[in-house]
Amino acid sequence: MTGQTEKELPAQKDWPDAVEVLNERGHSDIVLLCEHASNHMPAEYRQLGLDAHHLQRHIAWDIGAAEVTRLLSSKLDAPAFLSGYSRLLIDLNRPLHSQGSIPVLSEDTDIPGNVGIDATERTRRAEIIFSPFHDRVAAYLDRRAQAGRQTRIVTIHSFTPVFLGVSRPWHAGVLHDHASGLAEAILSGLRTDAALNVAANVPYVISRDADYAVPIHGDDRGIPAVLVEIRQDLLSTRSGIEEWANRLAAALPALETETVP
Predict the structure, then answer these.
(1) Is 20 helix (H, G, I), strand (E, B) or coil?
(2) Which long-range contacts (CB under 8 A, 24 or more apart) does 161-168 make?
(3) pTM more than 0.90
(4) How far apart are CA 133 and CA 108, in angstroms?
(5) Is 170 exposed, middle or buried (0-12, 13-18, 19+ CB in 10 A)?
(6) Portion of the chain with pLDDT greater than 70, in percent
């Protein structure tokens, strides 16, 4: 039995669960998602033909987002759902039919291992990585609804300070579609620090064709849902990560009594 366990461990490490769940019994009305938490890629994918340093870049994951999510989960007593695989294999925040689901080009980098893959491989990645994550989130939201619990969804992401040669001046953005009230409440909380440059729907906007969590888990269920983007250079140190977790924690609890569309 011991030998068998030792033999299985490497495989388990190479193929972790698609979703890591923290504090599932948390009392907060906030439910945290982090769809780009990990840059893990099983060995069989041979880094999709990329040099190893590319897996440390934003194209492979959202740098600092997982750490902020973990701290927020603890500070708010909030449940959190974090991804277990790199977004380069399949992006959990892209609809399966979209071009960005399994990218052949990410920012300015070709992804050789994603070129020309067949339907079988696409289905395999969806079944191993995409569906287990979102099915777990959906089942949890169903249970909260059945229990009559108030819910607001906040997904945590990070963005590059420069994208395709264009500088991005914002420190953070709060993206939304239906949940404008929730977004503005968070922004108001962040703006108590006058030095921060924060705004709604920057550096991206929510689109049903290009986003998944906010429209599907949030808007379609009538649950206020937003996506928080933090500039990743501000999350390059532990102190920066803690600072942003504290900022968001201070902004979010006041939402308990907010009236949000």
Answers:
(1) strand
(2) 161/231, 161/232, 161/233, 163/107, 163/203, 164/107, 164/108, 168/202, 168/203, 168/231
(3) yes
(4) 28
(5) middle
(6) 92
